Input
Amino acid sequence: MKLEGGERMPKPIVDIELCIGCGACPELCPEVFEMRDDEKAHVIGPDKCNSCDCQAAVDSCPVQAITLE
Ligand code: F3S
Output
């Protein structure tokens, strides 16, 4: 990951094809992820994580659907 002036925060991305709707990520980070009617997690606040850089969400997903960009 390239940091430019320490400002560049990683942004989480959910691979909709992989997400099985387990709900772990919105439970962990409701400001970053939300479940929608398709029962998939969607990123609503890619910049909202200010504690773990979304690494906890990445680690919590059972199907590795979350990646950081
Ligand atoms: Fe889906 Fe993984 Fe979140 S299965 S609901 S992206 S923790």
